[in-house]
Each structure stands twice: as structure tokens, then as C-alpha cells.
Amino acid sequence: MARIPLSEVRRFCIDCMTAVGTPQAHAVSLAEVLIEADHRGHFSHGINRLEMYVRDVETKTTDGSAVPKILQESAATAWVDGNNALGPVVGNFCMDVAIKKAKDYGVGWVVAKGTNHYGIAGWYCMHALKHNMLGMSFTNTSPLLSPTRSKTPVLGTNPIALAAPAKDGDSFILDMATSAVALGKIEVRRRKNESIPMGWAQGPDGRPTTDADLA
């Protein structure tokens, strides 16, 4: 299997995003989280997702040039409008605000609206580790999950992530979907024309399936 230098992967991601009008700094923010996802083994949220981000900016579903802003804040909290910007741009902005507030007041809670897919949730809580802080990151998603005994998706996979510093860099990091598996892992199997394990998903009839195309 051919090995591609990390610098080339980064360049490719940035070039793809700037080609559809994304500012360089925003493209870099996206490239960093995608590369980190692949590096950590979350291939469902790495370069696998690049096409989605390019398409969303190209079709104006996402505003690649938008900048988030604080709508309202207190000493330790903030409410942010993402202005439909790229998810990683909003996520980084929110975590930076939260870290600053935590340094000043002991805790920082920031919530955002008007944002988009932001990659792996763990990327953001890991920022806090650099400051010897606990970090948490949560997000909702589109309806993808059916309640028990139902075949209609009404719940999100709603990932949660937590990072806690420890000695000698041996930090604790949890990054998980609240469903049996993240949707992206099914998408990867579909691209490879592979079946999925029983218990990962159900088909349109509400019964468990191993067919990634029906999941």
C-alpha cells in the first residue's frame, strides 16, 4: 500500500476547500480535524468526509467564508451564532472562548446555533488538554436513529466527547456516538461494498440488516 506524506494530505484538503471559495484559514481548520480523525482511527470522519464539505460549500448549503460571533455572554457562559460557517471553524471558536472563560472564572460553557458538521467531537475537547483542563464537546445531528420498536428515524446520533489530562501525557479521551455506531462507519462500509455487522443498523422495514445500502 502506498504511503502519502502528511504534508501532501494536508495540502490536498486545503486546495480542495479553497478551490470552492473557502478562505485559507478556514480550510486549514477543516484539514486539521479531518487529518486528526484519520490519525486516531476514526476513518468515518476523516478524509472520507472531505467530499461532503466541498459539496456543502459549493452548493451554498454552508457558507465557507462565514465567521461565528458571540450573541450573548456572561462571565462563564456564551451563546454563539455560527452564521452557517464550517463546523470546525465554529467548534474551534467556541472552544477557544470556553477555555478563556475557564482560565478567568474556573469554568466555561459555550453553546452554538447556526453551525454544521464539525468532524470528531474529540478534537475540540482535546484543545483543553493543552491547558491542563477538562474538556467536553457535544452536538446534535439530523434524525438518523429510530426509537425501540420503531422504523422511523427521529433521534440524532448525538455524539459526546470528554478529555481529562493525566500524568506524562497519558490523558483520558472519550469520543463516541450515542447510537450503536456512527453513521460514517456505515458509509465507509458502503463505499467498500462491504456488509455491516448485525446490530449496527436496521433497514426500512425496521428489521436488523447487514446490508449497508439498506441501513
From TrEMBL:
It comes from the Eukaryota. The keyword Oxidoreductase applies. Gene3D superfamilies: 1.10.1530.10, Hypothetical oxidoreductase yiak, domain 2 (3.30.1370.60). Pfam families: Ldh_2 (PF02615). Keywords: Oxidoreductase. Residues 196-215 are annotated as: Disordered. The keyword Oxidoreductase applies. One of its GO terms (molecular function) is oxidoreductase activity. Belongs to the LDH2/MDH2 oxidoreductase family. PANTHER family: MALATE DEHYDROGENASE, OXIDOREDUCTASE-RELATED. This is Malate dehydrogenase.
